[in-house]
Amino acid sequence: MMRALVAVLLLIAGLAAGRAEPVFPQGLQTGLEPAGDLQTEPGFAGFQDSEHKVTVVIAELPSGTYEKLADSMFGTSPPGAIHVNRESFPFNNGIGYLHTAEGSENGVTFRRWILIAKPVEAPGELLNFVVLVNVTVPQSASSVYTDALVRKMLRTVSFRPPPIEERLKLIPFTVSDFAGFRVVQVLPQGLILTDGPDDDVGSQPSMIVSIGRLTSAQADDRARFSRDLLAVMPVRDLTVTSAEDQRIGGRPGFEIRARGKDAHGEPLSVVQWVRFTGNGFLRFVGVSRPDLWDAMFNRFRTVRDATDLR
Which terminal CB of the chain, N or C, has fewer other CB atoms within 10 Å? Predict the structure, then answer.
């Protein structure tokens, strides 16, 4: 009996050790079990096999694009594409649409698999995006990366919650002190922070930190540019209470303070700082209820002063 038990335990351990795990490229919520010699590298949204010139490119797009992408997939075939096939495609975490075709670019013949998938939301997790996985295999590597192998790999597509710490490393600026605020979302050009038990930035103190480019006209009229930025804030009855030039982080800047109302008519206090950096700018917006303003304003300023370009 004991020998049989040991044998079963060893078998289970061996199976667990041999089971592959999905690999997630840095900053992405989508991963898979890469086939062959595919590897991920920092700065590349997917996997590459340099020797065989095989790529797997992963794009995470807004959820509203799902139907449009699906309609496009079942529409007109791309110019020059042959052996086109379209089908529903179940994978580990849901079901999507798979488009396969052969074609040629720059004298290289290849086979391409494009999977469109919408993550199934897990309890307590918001996976509000659509993923596009594009696998390209040149004819020279078709005996290694066969259709069966690629399909097996695509069935392992998996998802995870937003990797906040990884995404922070990808934005073009750093924040050394979040002043107790929590990062809600990391966007390509900025951050959304909040102070409260959930991610509802509309009902609790919040802050946006972002980066952008300037035209020559905007750089010459910083006050107007700053006011134009503030004007697009989703705050009702926005009224400017003060506006002035400032030095921020040793650079020219502009501060605007304002008051307004949220979507429910509750009063809000707002501050916006714009720090100009040559042909670009860093923008900081803090929003809070008036009764919390004094404490929040100091924390907003702490985040502002702890932010710098990479």
Answer: N
